[in-house]
Amino acid sequence: MEVLKVKYGSPEAAERFCHSLKTTGFAVITDHPIPFELVNRVYSLWGDFFKSEEKNKYTFKPESQAGFFPFRSENAKDYSIKDLKEFFHIYPRSEIPEFLKKDTWDLYDRLVGLGNELLGWVQTASPADVRNHFSMPLNTMTTNSEENLLRVIHYPPLQGTEERGAIRAAAHEDINLITLLCSATAAGLEVMDTAGDWHAVPCDPGSIAINAGDMLQLASKGYYKSTTHRVVNPQGVDAKLPRYSMPLFLHPRPEVKLSEEITAGAYLKQRLREIGLLKVTK
Asked: Is 156 left (phi over 0), alpha (psi -120 to 50) or beta?
């Protein structure tokens, strides 16, 4: 399984990116315009936040899905054991502490801008029959979307008392169109190939890993597969260290049609119920 490294700005970037996305569900972007120093600064600031009790003042409300999600709030679809993580959801509507605002919103805007550009690559480099499935150009589905989500995740050190089967992030597929993942502070991300084997995803410091989500799979009628991935528990001394990651999930506006049968808003609510973040209403 070969997840391609794609140099941002190269003449063949769009073609290589879409080829890797089509064949593996992932691609890694290098030499991109987002400063590595900004990413590191945001990680450091949010590390301070997760260590403080102030985080509990920002506990999420189910109707908005914005704010702090306490440890073990989420489970993968069809998996009953909760993940070993806590996280914060950042939407344009989110309230975050003052000391985090400047750098976090700077990173958010840069990632959304890059993500929309990458969706433009997919739009232009996909075969004509695939493009014809889209209800509108992919990079316009997310324009001014209030659902674009930056999730800052903290995986605490393992205690050795975790229940059998509990891992940092159980095998899952993302809900959205594409995900941009700044290089995490520690290894652990793995992707499954078509034979069911797991592979570590290469993402060196300064690179960004991109994967296809369920909405892109649905909108492309299966041409782009939403690839299964997970974050495994570290072993040895690394088990006593925390891990941080910051995926940016690009979501269409709620009214955008993913298919003739369902809109992005309806699909999102359906999936949030499945992973335990939205209560099922009768």
From this structure: beta
Q: Which helix (H) or strand (E) holds 199?
A: strand 198-200
At residue 66's C-alpha, the angle toward residues 60 and 70, to 5°, is: 40
pTM of the model: 0.94
Using one digit for the tens of pLDDT, what is the confidence trace for 115-147?
999 999 999 999 999 999 999 999 999 999 999
Distance between CA 124 and CA 47 in Å, rounded? 39
User: In a 3-state reduction of DSSP, which class is residue 170?
Assistant: strand
Q: What's the DSSP call for residue 107?
A: H
* Cα distance between residue 67 and residue 87, in whole Å: 8
The CA–CA distances, whole Å, from 279 to 62, 198, 199 equal: 8, 32, 34
Distance linking the first and last C-alpha atoms of the chain: 44
Which domains does the chain possess? 5-274 (2.60.120.330)
Q: Are 185 and 237 in contact (CB under 8 A)?
A: no
Residue with tokens 């059998």: 164
- Tell me the backbone φ, ψ of residue 2, rounded to 5 degrees: -120, 105
